[in-house]
Amino acid sequence: MVSRRLKIAGGIAIVAVAGIAAFFVIGNKSDDAKKNFTVAMVTDVGGVDDKSFNQSAWEGVQKWGKSHDLEKGQNGYNYFQSDTQADFAPNFQQAINGKYNLVAGIGYALHDATINAAKKNPKTEFVLVDDVDTKKTKNVVSLMFRSEQSSYLAGVAAATKTKDLGGSSVGFIGGMHGNIIDAFEAGYTAGVKSVDPNMNVDVQYADSFTDAAKGQTIAKAMMAKGEKVIFQAAGTVGNGVFTAAKDNNQTLTADSKDKVWVIGVDMDQSDMGAYKDKDGKKSNFTLTSSITGVGRGLELVANKAMKGNFPGGTVVAYGLKEGGVAAPTKYMSADEKAAVAKAKKAIIAGDIKVPNHPEGSEFDQNF
Fold first, then answer.
1. In this predicted model, what pLDDT tens digit does every residue of 24-43 receive, in sequence order?
2. Which of 91, 102, 105, 93 is nearest to 53 (CA)?
3. What is the structure's pLDDT at 139?
4. pTM over 0.85
5. Sequence-separated (6 or more) residues with CB below 8 Å from residue 308
6. Running DSSP on this structure, what letter comes out for residue 226?
7. DSSP state of 72
8. Domains along the chain?
9. Which of 156, 230, 234, 144 is nearest to 190 (CA)?
10. Alpha helix stretches (DSSP H) within 111-210
C-alpha cells in the first residue's frame, strides 16, 4: 500500500463516479471508435502480489481487459513492475513505447513521473492514482478515494470490540505521514471517538512502508500495553503486524479475551488473519479492512476513456456512497455489525462528516 501524497490545494474540479484505481495504460487502435484499447500498468514498489494497493489495481486491470476479450500482453493488458523508484520513469517510457493511449500511476509516489510523462506525451491519456494533479493537466485525471470514510467504520468496529473486552485503548500503525495515511488515521480516530470519546488511540508511525520487522516490533509493544485491536496502514510493514498477532493468537483459544485483532488496509486482508488456535481450530483475527477499490476505479475510468469521455484535468473521487471504499463485516460480532451499519448510513446521508486529516496536520486534503 505504498501510496499517498503531497499537499493538495483546494478548488479542484471533482467528478463523482462509482469506482477505484491503479497505474495503467490504455491504447486506442481506432480513431473513429475507441475500441480495442490495450492496457498496461506501472506499479509502485511492491509488485502486483503485495496483497495491497498494487494487487488491487492489477486485479482491476485484468478484469477490465477480460471483459473486453483482451489477453495479457502488448495487444491486451499488462503491467510494468517497479522494484525501486528509479524504475518509474523507464517503466512509463516502456508504456509509451508500447503505444498505450491511457496510462495511470499507482500511488502518490508516482506523482512526478506520471506528470512528467504526461507533459512529454500530450496525446496520451494518464491516470494519477491516489494523488491530485494540482496543475489540472488536460491529459491527466486524478483518481482519489475517501479512505477516511472506510477508516471511520473500522474505528467504530475497533472501539466497539475494545469496549466489549473491557479495554480503553486501540492501536494505529502508519507507514509514513502524508495526505492518505493521515486520512486513514483521522477517520479511524474519529470512528473510535464516536463510540467512546475517552478511548485512547495509540498512534505510531514506522517511517517506512517496507520494514515488516519494525511493524512487528511496534505491534508487540502495543499488545504489551493491552491493546487488542490494531489498525495498520503501512504497506508491507503491516505484514509484521499480522505476524505479531498470529504468534500471540496461536497460543490461545479462538474465543480468548486476549486474542489480538488486526484491521487490514487497501484490500480485504482477511486471508492474512487466518490461523489455527492452540486446539487446532480454524479461526481469523482480521476484524475488518479499510478497503480502497482501486481496481474498480480503473475499470470505470478506462470505460469512460474508451467512449471518448476521458475526464482529463479533473479529480474523480470515490467514497462509501459511490462504492469506492468499504469495510467488510464478516468477522465482526452482531453489535459491531450494527454499529458499523448505522455509521455507514449516516456517512452516506451526509449526517456524519469524516475528517481527512488529524488536528494540526499539514496534510489537509480538499477535493
1. 444 444 443 345 788 888 99
2. 105
3. 97
4. no
5. 34
6. T
7. B
8. 14-146+292-318 (3.40.50.2300), 147-291+324-349 (3.40.50.2300)
9. 156
10. 111-120, 147-164, 179-195
